[in-house]
């Protein structure tokens, strides 16, 4: 019968698809991880992984073993939750995957307030240029701009948010006036790198009518700093306005985009009280923070 420590190593390799990646998460050197996997395969009398140039991939036996091991993990997590102290405070570590804009301008305040109410809670925010893979347990939950269509996931809409065209006051003073969207073709544009847009909801080019930005980044924070440095005109989230006092909205009556944030969780986690309670506080906090920041007018 495999011990739980070996099962933890198995889960880490299955999710990271490499010995080194698993080792980083487990604080264990790759050689030790490899020996633990070999021992586990001997214990269960099955080959669980095949090695390829892309990393460690589960075999058919490995896929079946993963299902049973995740069920065991879930049971241990539930048992741990039930033994928490009676004060009702959240504790442990929660990892959130999030897009750049949400991670930089919304989550720090919301998460800090949740942790202030729950001193034993640690929160990690993973900023990635794509949707995190919850099935591989890259995070406990994720905030996405589009609801995923595949996977054993649960999706909850958090809130809508708005975006407008923006530029610095200095840039607008030194360049031709913008009276229509057609006028944008005579201006420098700040936006996403076209071939690095991982979600169609982030493709603002169709709405503005401008295809190629002169100043581009896959990071909202970098785009904001381009605008701050008088580089050109870009599309900016309304919840970022309090962080950008030198910027001004352009064509606010004729151009406005509405997008949404969604909370995505692994389907099995809905039975984990700690994560469900944290998710509830996170959703409530994000809704309030977006409303507060969008009320700021520039």
UniProtKB/TrEMBL annotation:
GO terms for molecular function: DNA-binding transcription factor activity; sequence-specific DNA binding. One of its GO terms (biological process) is DNA-templated transcription. It comes from the Bacteria. The keyword DNA-binding applies. The keyword DNA-binding applies. Gene3D superfamilies: 3.40.190.290, Winged helix-like DNA-binding domain superfamily/Winged helix DNA-binding domain. PANTHER family: HTH-TYPE TRANSCRIPTIONAL REGULATOR, TRANSCRIPTIONAL REGULATORY PROTEIN. This is LysR family transcriptional regulator. It comes from Actibacterium mucosum KCTC 23349. The lineage of its organism: Bacteria, Pseudomonadati, Pseudomonadota, Alphaproteobacteria, Rhodobacterales.
